[in-house]
Design goal:
Layout: E1 10-12, E2 23-25, H1 26-46, H2 49-61, H3 63-67, E3 95-102, E4 110-111, E5 114-115, H4 116-130, E6 137-144, E7 158-165, H5 169-178, H6 187-194, E8 205-212, H7 222-231, E9 239-243, H8 250-254, E10 258-262, H9 265-280, E11 283-290, E12 302-307, E13 313-318, E14 329-332, E15 338-342, E16 348-353, E17 361-366, E18 369-376, H10 384-388, E19 390-395, E20 401-406, E21 409-414, E22 416-422, E23 428-435, E24 440-445, E25 449-454, E26 459-467, E27 470-476, E28 483-488, E29 491-499, E30 509-515, E31 520-524
Parallel strand pairs: 3-6, 3-8, 8-9, 9-10, 11-17, 18-24, 25-31
Antiparallel strand pairs: 1-2, 4-5, 6-7, 11-14, 12-13, 12-15, 15-16, 18-21, 19-20, 19-22, 22-23, 25-28, 26-27, 26-29, 29-30
Helix pairs in contact: 1-2, 4-5, 4-9, 6-7
């Protein structure tokens, strides 16, 4: 007889709609479960009647399978976060909000009929409860100054009371009710330890909301710690809510993050709601690249949005005019402030842009542009000369290179005046070349001539031009070549040469020769 342990397990269930047999192998059961899981998740997300009907049919035909998998009605109905390729924005990125609460002894001070702690406790619990449920937002609570009395000067009195989880409001409320202010204010160390609270996730938005009624009391530098954590991309620029702090504390708090000073208890709820709105919403921003008439018609150029505090690039876009001919609207994270670089030639930068009110914003950036075309007057004798001749473009009066442009090409620049240095032999210098809106400035130079230099013996030499009676070297001959091809602009030149084998300076050879545009010349040394 066959070992019963080797038999394929089956699920037998009397069909409730007649005599339909139900001998199902485990693989079939698993397939049914998989289909049901998919159906329930679709039902939760879309609520389609067709999906509801499909679920009902499964329940009618296979009640044993449906009812024996309770996860179909609980865990499997939770939304999942899809993996998204780098550079593509997630529909619902994970946002983690850490409430960092001051529970130092000063939080027992009265504030219009209540203690500061009572006001903060109530508002934080209310705000945590008001956040959208689901897996896209997680909250946590870290507290300092609540375990050791003030006279102990315990700068390590810091504790994560509620770790990150979704739908965490009840846990946060419970711990808040148990906390009693006692100690001091280790603000910098609390911000540093907060970094450990955020599980690693390169795509998550990590945010600290600090609620405090006092400044650092342990000698730390909370501003430096906050900036370091932002630079390490542990968390974004924190929110700092001061509870009736003295105006003199502004500089010490504003450098930590987005600072709000609440002077009355009733205002705390409004400020906290504003903070949460900035955390959970996006700012609509339109970048208008203006031409000289002030119209937003310039486009098709890269834009990079950098975190103004850390210098880290947050967004890269290619500016676009939409189907209505106006700049396309962007959705940006309003938590941080930005420096935006428009990658025109030369680039344009606008600094410290903030989108705190979440209303539609327009950024107007003058970016009028035109074209510069540099070209040879005719074809060269040798085509490889074209690729060797370059044009260095600089803003007029500036030593910095804006662009190195190839000959016989056209390139877009911001309107204005430019100095050109064309790398012919000798070099051609052109000053204050104007580039105007939506037009092409064309610069033509004479095509070079070509000199073929033949040397009987290898040796040392150079080519010079006469500059008001002074010889200026423009080209050094290759001491190991017997023949060289050199492109030169039209003009008179002097070649000075001495064979390697010669040990007498007086055996140097000097020859003067003339080059004409587009013509070749043979020079024997």
């Amino acid at each position: 007889m066959r070992n019963p342990a080797h038999r394929t397990p089956v699920l037998r269930r009397q069909n409730h709609c007649g005599s339909f047999p139900a001998d199902l192998t485990q693989s079939v059961v698993q397939q049914i479960v998989t289909n049901l899981q998919t159906t329930v998740m679709q039902l939760t997300k879309y609520n389609y009647q067709a999906i509801l009907f499909k679920y009902a049919i499964y329940l009618l035909l296979f009640p044993g399978v449906v009812l024996s998998y309770p996860e179909l009605s609980s865990a499997q109905t939770k939304k999942t976060t899809a993996t998204v390729a780098p550079g593509i924005t997630k529909a619902e990125p994970l946002t983690r909000i850490l409430f960092l609460l001051d529970a130092s002894s000063s939080m027992l001070n009265p504030w219009e009929g209540k203690t500061k702690m009572d006001v903060a406790r109530s508002v934080i619990a209310e705000i945590a409860d008001s956040l959208p449920s689901g897996t896209s937002i997680q909250t946590a609570l870290r507290v300092y100054g609540h375990q050791s009395i003030n006279t102990a000067n315990d700068c390590n009195d810091i504790k994560l009371e509620v770790p990150f989880a979704s739908d965490n409001a009840s846990a946060i409320r419970y711990r808040l009710n148990a906390i009693r202010p006692k100690g001091i204010t280790p603000l910098a160390l609390s911000l540093e330890k907060s970094a450990d609270d955020f599980p690693y996730d390169a795509n998550a938005r990590n945010i600290v909301v600090l609620v405090t009624d006092g400044e650092e009391s342990c000698g730390g530098d909370p501003c430096a710690i906050s900036l370091l954590m932002q630079q390490k991309q542990v968390y974004l620029k924190p929110f700092v809510i001061g509870l009736n702090l003295d105006p003199s504390a502004y500089s010490a708090m504003d450098c930590i993050g987005n600072y709000f000073n609440v002077q009355q208890p009733d205002a705390l709820r409004s400020v906290m709601k504003t903070v949460v709105q900035r955390i959970t919403a996006a700012a609509s921003v339109r970048v208008n690249l203006l031409d000289e008439a002030g119209n937003p018609l310039e486009t098709d150029v890269n834009m990079t949005f950098y975190d103004a505090a850390t210098g880290i690039a947050k967004y890269n876009f290619y500016h676009t005019l939409n189907y209505r001919g106006i700049p396309d609207t962007l959705q940006l994270d309003p938590v941080i402030s930005y420096n935006v670089v428009i990658h025109t030639t030369p680039p344009i930068e606008s600094k410290a842009l903030q989108f705190t009110d979440l209303s539609a914003r327009e950024i107007n950036i003058p970016a009028s542009q035109g074209f510069l075309k540099v070209e040879l007057s005719s074809s060269t004798i040798h085509n490889n000369l074209n690729s060797k001749i370059k044009c260095i473009v600089r803003t007029a009066g500036s030593p910095e290179t804006v662009q190195v442009q190839d000959m016989n090409t056209s390139f877009k620049y911001l309107t204005g005046n430019y100095d050109l240095e064309i790398l012919t032999l000798p070099r051609i210098q052109l000053k204050n070349i104007a580039i105007t809106q939506s037009s092409t400035t064309s610069v033509k130079i004479d095509v070079p001539g070509v000199v073929t230099i033949s040397k009987t013996f290898p040796g040392f030499g150079a080519i010079f031009i006469n500059d008001n009676g002074r010889l200026v070297k423009i080209y050094s001959l290759n001491e190991n070549l017997s023949n060289e091809l050199v492109g030169l602009q039209a003009g008179q030149y002097t070649a000075i040469f001495r064979p390697k084998s010669s040990k007498k300076t007086t055996e140097s050879i000097t020859k003067t020769f003339q080059i004409k545009s587009g013509q070749s010349f043979q020079l024997k040394l």
